[in-house]
Amino acid sequence: MDMSTPDFVIIGGGLAGCECALALARYGLACTLYEQKPETFSPAHVSPLLGELVCSNSFRSNDAQGSGVGLLKEEMRKLGSATMAIAATCSVPAGKALAVDRTLFAEELTRRVEEEPLITLIRRQIPDLDAPELEGKTVIVAAGPLVSENLAASLADIISTGSAAPRLYFYDAIAPIVRADSVDMTIAFRGSRYGNDAPPPYSDDAPFLEKPMETMVNPGAEDNGDYLNCPMTKAEYTAFYEALREAERVPAHDFEKEIHFEGCMPIEALADRGERTLTFGPLKPVGFTDPRTGRRPYALLQLRAENAERTSFNLVGCQTKMTYGAQDKVFRLVPGLANAEFLRFGSVHRNTYVNAPECLNDDLSLKARPNVYLAGQITGVEGYVESAACGLWLGLLLAARAHGRDLPLPPQTTALGARMRHLRTPSKQFTPSNIHFGLMPELAERTKKKARKAEMADRGRADFDAWLAETELGKENTSC
Ligand SMILES: Cc1cc2nc3c(=O)[nH]c(=O)nc-3n(C[C@H](O)[C@H](O)[C@H](O)COP(=O)(O)OP(=O)(O)OC[C@H]3O[C@@H](n4cnc5c(N)ncnc54)[C@H](O)[C@@H]3O)c2cc1C
To answer: Which of 209, 286, 407, 450 is deepest in the core (most CB within 10 A)?
Structure first.
């Protein structure tokens, strides 16, 4: 290979693009990195520096035993992540979280990229994927959730050809996810809407039965575990509704105002329209019997299975801009969720990402144009750390291949393996995701809630170390 000729072109000098470029360089490979700033800024970027953290200065939990993102960080350190190395030099006190001085962080990342002889940094926008700069090159699009509109249009054209449904999305409407075994099944019940005889109508005065009715009154219970249903009386609904109205909300950025349209309205915005709007919308009770009363519930929240094993469920229609703290209080008012374990909270924000399971090959290349790879948030990973991890992974994979080797993905029990496999898992509605333990397989043995995360972390660590030892990355004197 002629090392003087850059073969790789990376579009976007954010966390993913810089991690990818530096990983390639560590293995002796040259690349050209195009960054549109300071010529052009997205609506959220303000600094000319690379690796700009556009919102919070936190990389979230550093606790590898208690959080998926803590475990992911540990694995990234073992893989030589620049983000993790630099964060360690400019961290600020943040309890169990890893937070950084954002300016120092971005300055140091920029310095490393600029001083790396194998990286040619060009401050220019790449307007489309047929631009002459990309001809004959291996292209990595790491242009982020606020990718320039022209490049997004070009990507959409390529991946949507021959498909009736759009494959590039411009916003996230994420509903919270809970662990299935933390839902109180003495209140919630399995089953799907309609199909049974109409139950007696709702009555405020209907007493709770001494023994809840068999859940079989709701059809589909025996063969369809895809939905769990949380029924509400009027008093329970009113308490939930009032808490929703009063809950603290995350303010929208100016450029996010347009995303509130039907179909992806935050649940609290629907609640603002009137007291009954939710009961005619996402909390509509028709077609169900509340096993506690034998009558139709006043309102009903459905939980939809998030994975094939049905170990985690999302709260249907509960995309929200409430703060995480508010979500933790408000959703516990839903009958059956008082002790729910939240694997992920909800959000609604502008975010450009592809339907990864449909558009990407396992190695993150586009099915429709295999010399073009995606990295970072645009793939459907969510979060600073996850975006950096994705760029790092792609850099290592491409480096291994350039040196004639393959690099298998770490097992799904590891944070990186679980994170990247989510992009390969087809679903009716692909939504971006942070890393969390719910993306990893259950433990073989039932474990107490308190010990579960630590055991999953121990299992992941052992599997990651074994994987690393097997790969060239883990061997000393690698000639990469
Ligand atoms: C408003 C907002 C707030 C967020 N807040 C958080 C948060 O608090 N915590 C968190 O964990 N995650 C947050 N995220 C999600 C996400 O993790 C970050 O956006 C993260 O920076 C994504 O990393 P990335 O490398 O994929 O993209 P980016 O960091 O956005 O980097 C992409 C780079 O590509 C450049 N670029 C775009 N188009 C072109 C082009 N055509 N040619 C050349 N260069 C181009 C951009 O200028 C940018 O520098 C937020 C996202 C948004 C949109």
So the answer is: 407
CB-ligand 1 contact for 217 (6 Å cutoff): no
Mean pLDDT of the chain: 90
Which stretches of 82-148 are DSSP H helices? Answer: 82-89, 102-115
Structure tokens at 41: 């800024």
Answer yes or no: is the C-beta of 122 below 6 A from any ligand 1 atom.
no
CA–centroid distance, residue 46 to ligand 1 (Å): 12
Contact 349, 172 (CB under 8 A): yes
Give the CATH architecture of domain 177-345: Beta Barrel (2.40)
pLDDT value at residue 479: 40
Any alpha helices (H) in 281-423, and if so which ranges? Answer: 324-330, 356-359, 384-402, 415-421
Second CATH level (architecture) for the domain 8-170+352-474: 3-Layer(bba) Sandwich (3.50)
Sheet (strand 365-366) strand order: 119-122, 31-34, 8-11, 138-141, 369-374, 365-366
Is this structure's pTM higher than 0.70?
A: yes
Alpha-carbon span 17 to 11, nearest angstrom: 7
Sequence ranges of the domains in the chain: 8-170+352-474, 177-345
First to last CA, the chain: 12
d(CA 27, CA 139): 18
> 367 CA to middle of ligand 1, Å?
24
For residue range 385-396, what is the model confidence (pLDDT) as tens digits?
999 999 999 999
CB 219 within 8 A of CB 190: no
Q: Is the CB of 61 under 6 A from ligand 1?
A: no
475: CA distance to ligand 1 center in Å?
A: 33
Q: Does 56 sit in the ligand 1 pocket, CB within 6 Å? A: yes
Ligand 1 and 143: CB distance under 6 A: yes
Average pLDDT over residues 243-268: 76
97-100, strands of its sheet edge to edge: 58-61, 97-100, 91-92
The DSSP output letter for 135 is T
pLDDT at 216: 53
Q: 145 in ligand 1 pocket by Cβ < 6 Å?
A: yes
**Residue whose CB lies within 8 A of the most ligand 1 atoms, among 9, 154, 377, for a mutation test:** 377
Please indicate whether residue 15, judged by its CB atom, sits closer than 6 Å to ligand 1. yes
Number of H helices, E strands in the chain: 12, 17
Q: How far is the CA of 144 from the centre of ligand 1 (A)?
A: 4
Burial of 159-174, coded b for 16+ CB within 10 Å and e otherwise, reads bbeeeeeebbbbbbbb
